[in-house]
Amino acid sequence: MPREQGRKVVASNRKAHHDYAILDTYEAGMVLTGTEVKSLRAGRASLVDAFGHENGGEIFLHGMHIPEYTQGTWTNHEPRRVRKLLLKRDEIAKMRNKLRDDGVTLVPLQVYFHNGYAKVEIGLGKGKKSYDKRQDLASRDAQKEISRALGRRAKGMS
């Protein structure tokens, strides 16, 4: 059977861009068991409380929830276990240097299948203050209003 082509998104962390200013993004593979992959292929995963952590020159993903596979038996996995991320050594070194800065954390942004392999997109994020969040919302609303006005003008309404 041929391998899947393209990118199929399983789960995305929509609040990440609201809560964090994403400085840099990386694509990493994950060390998964068989039932975890089957559960992901069924489209079941959650990144709500997930975060990345560097330990001993390796990056681990904590708090990602992959529910147990429904047809699994005693070989089923633990839903919130710690998962190792597969990255190149120089990428880990860059991350480690940036993580030493104050307020920078590893945030998972998306879990997806790329050409049949389970991948996670992680970002180095710096926490936003509440006034930054309000400013982002205000600029987004202003941008929507501008595009609406341009659309009305193009249609000749006003």
Summarize the structure.
This protein is of the alpha+beta class. It has 4 helices and 7 strands. The mean pLDDT is 85.
The largest pleated sheet is described as:
7 strands, antiparallel
- Strands across the major sheet, in which order? 1-6-7-2-5-4-3
Strand content: 25-35%
Helix content: 25-40%
Q: Quaternary arrangement of the chains shown?
A: single chain
Write the layout of secondary structure elements.
Elements: E1 7-12, H1 16-19, E2 20-30, H2 34-41, E3 51-55, E4 58-62, E5 83-86, H3 89-99, E6 104-114, E7 117-127, H4 130-155
Antiparallel strand pairs: 1-6, 2-5, 2-7, 3-4, 4-5, 6-7
What does this structure look like?
This protein is α+β, with helices and mostly antiparallel strands.
Short key terms for the protein model shown above:
158 residues, 7-stranded antiparallel β-sheet, globular
